[in-house]
Amino acid sequence: MRLDKFLKVSRLIKRRTLAKEVSDQGRITVNGTVAKASSTVKEGDELAIRFGQKRITAKVEKLQDSSKKEDAAGMFTIIKEEKLSEE
């Protein structure tokens, strides 16, 4: 599944266009490698997403083409959430 679609369906990022913009800016890594919106995501992959002054690391648990709001949280597990220092 494409990275931008996974981020939207899992509701880590609300809109697919926003997910594409964030990944094109180099703010998302998959298993430690900077990822583009078209990168393929598999179960077990580790995503690190930088939102402003916060970085979220999540593990992909399952892939679905669509999901209800209640089911979306089961698509990933938050491993850690850290605040980045201002430089």
From TrEMBL:
Keyword tRNA-binding in annotation: yes
Entries under SMART domains matching the protein: S4 (SM00363)
Query: Which residues are in the RNA-binding S4 domain?
Result: 1-62
Q: Where are the transmembrane segments?
A: none
Which GO BP terms sit in this record? rescue of stalled ribosome
Provide this UniProt record's keywords sorted from A to Z. Answer: Protein biosynthesis, RNA-binding, rRNA-binding, tRNA-binding
Q: Name one GO molecular function term.
A: ribosomal large subunit binding
Q: What is this protein called?
A: RQC P-site tRNA stabilizing factor
Classification from the root reads:
Bacteria, Bacillati, Bacillota, Bacilli, Bacillales
Tell me the gene name.
Answer: rqcP
